[in-house]
Amino acid sequence: MSATGVARFNEPCIIGRMTLARRDALRGTAAMAVAGSIGRRAHAAREAVRLICGFGVGNPTDLCAQLIQDGFSAALNEPVEFDYTLGQAGRRAALQVIDAEPDGRLLLIAEILNLVLQETPAEPLLSRLQPIAKVTRGFSTALAVNELSDIRDWPGLLAAAGAARLKAATMGADSTIGLLLALVERRLKLSFEPIEVAGTNAAVDLLLTRRADIAVVDTRTALLHNARNRTKLRVLATSGARRSPQLPDVPTLAELVGDRKLAYTISFGVFAPAATPAVVANRLTAALVGLRTDRSVQTQARLARIPLEFDGPSAIATAVARDRRVAADLAG
Question: Among candidates 48, 3, 5, which has minimal Cα distance to 313?
Fold first, then answer.
């Protein structure tokens, strides 16, 4: 924590800049007017705050960025542009921001837990990033089966897993969602046959077509699927510290194994390069935290079922400490 109260981690990122097509010069005052207009637009593009997402369209990180973009722009009274830098499970986007000039013009929006999981001793991420604001409450992940499955509850899962090696759709133990399955395997001494997928939609598809016995998805996806589709998912357990209000009969993994420290949720934050001056970081933080009272942003978030909640850098520090504890449990 700096003397100004801004918590610091470090990390940069790389991003493509928008380019304006050049036109042949025209004659007289018309040419000057066109050139002046192009010059002003190019200047605006260079000066916009750029918000980078490491995952593609439709991912919750992408949805968070889209939800806050306009309100963030209005609060700063300047343009905020949104773009993607895909690859390496979000690492490329983080590294792009880490390597950027620390002037507050290039920012990362990311899952806090994912940054923890993607760090390595040789290439740390959070120590090279400065947290600006936490922008959501946490939401849990879920272990689910097709509602037509013979596995009807947690004891049923344990019995089935003891009798045969079940096929499990997962995005991998180093992903924020796949982490739940990995923790189940470690704590309960189970072993599943992994079917690695690129995202939760693919995991759901494997369940529906009975090509996987179980899957890990974010709880939001399971709830949205059940609200929209005839064939439902049956959630057996979630990763949060408390039961989901929408799934009051579904236990958490923490209560099933009797260890509250095993609970985790996915939350999102905005980050700048580590050396960003405090005056710049504080202005960005104030703009985002001010969205707490933006009714338009909150209405859109409710419709998208994204739990927006704005808090300062210290909330990110708290989330990082918890997430590192959970990741350490997995590492053994």
Answer: 5
Q: What is the pLDDT of residues 47-88, one digit of tens each?
A: 799 999 999 888 889 999 999 999 999 999 999 999 999 999
CA dihedral 309, 310, 312, 315 (to 10 degrees): 10
Is residue 258 domain-shared with residue 150, that is, in the same domain? yes
Same domain, 249 and 107: no
Do 316 and 269 form a contact (C-beta atoms < 8 A)? yes
Q: Are 160 and 150 in contact (CB under 8 A)?
A: yes
Question: Which residues constitute the domain of residue 117?
Answer: 28-136+268-331
What values do phi and psi take at 331, rounded to 5? Answer: -70, -20
Contacts of 62 (CB under 8 A, 6+ apart): 53, 55, 56, 84
Using a cut of 0.85, tell me whether the model's pTM lies above it.
no
Separate counts of helices (H) and strands (E) for the chain? 12, 11
Residue in 259, 257, 238 with CA at minimum distance from that of residue 248: 238
Q: What are phi and psi of 35, to 5 degrees?
A: -60, -40
140 contacts 238 by C-beta, under 8 angstroms: yes
- What is the C-alpha separation between 249 and 72, in angstroms, rounded? 38
Domain assignment present for residue 10? The answer is no
pLDDT tens per residue, range 146-177:
999 999 999 999 999 999 999 999 999 999 99
In terms of domains, do 61 and 148 share one?
no
At position 147, the amino acid (one-letter code) is: E
Residue holding tokens 């408390």? 242
